Amino acid sequence: MKKLDREERERLLPALAGWTHDTMRDAITKRFVFVDFVAAFGFMARVALIAEKADHHPEWSNVCNRVDILLTTHDAGGLSQRDIELAGAINAIAEEQKA
Question: Which of these, 61, 59, 65, 68, lies nearest to 18 by C-alpha position?
C-alpha cells in the first residue's frame, strides 16, 4: 500500500464529509456524536467488524456519547487509499445509525 501524494489527497479528501487532514501525522480524523453511550458503543462495534474484515484498524477513543477516530496507514507511513475507503464506510455506518 502506498502513501497518497498531495494531488491524490486534494482529489479524495473533499468527498469525505466531516473528516479533517491531520498534517502532523498524515492522517484523517473525525468526531462522531451520538444520543448516548450505548449508541456510540454500538457504532464502534459495527466499525470494528468492517475494520477487522479489512485488516485496517482505526485509532479511536470513546467518551460518553462521542467517538473520535484517526485513520492512517502505518505501513505506508501516512494516509493511503485504505484510509479513504475505511472513512467512507465509517461515514455510511454513522448515517445508517442516524436513520
Answer: 68
Distance CA 41, CA 63 (A): 10
**Mode of pairing for the β-strands spanning 66-71 and 20-22:** unpaired
pLDDT tens digit at each of 99 positions of the chain: 899 999 999 999 999 999 999 999 999 999 999 999 999 999 999 999 999 999 999 999 999 999 999 999 999 999 999 999 999 999 999 999 876
Question: How crowded is residue 28: how many other Cβ atoms within 10 Å of its Cβ?
Answer: 23
In the prediction, which pLDDT does 97 show? 87
Interatomic CA distance for residues 28 and 30, integer angstroms = 7
In order, the DSSP letters of 43-86 are: HHHHHHHHHHHHT---EEEEETTEEEEEE-BGGGTB-BHHHHHH
Q: What is the pLDDT of residue 1?
A: 86
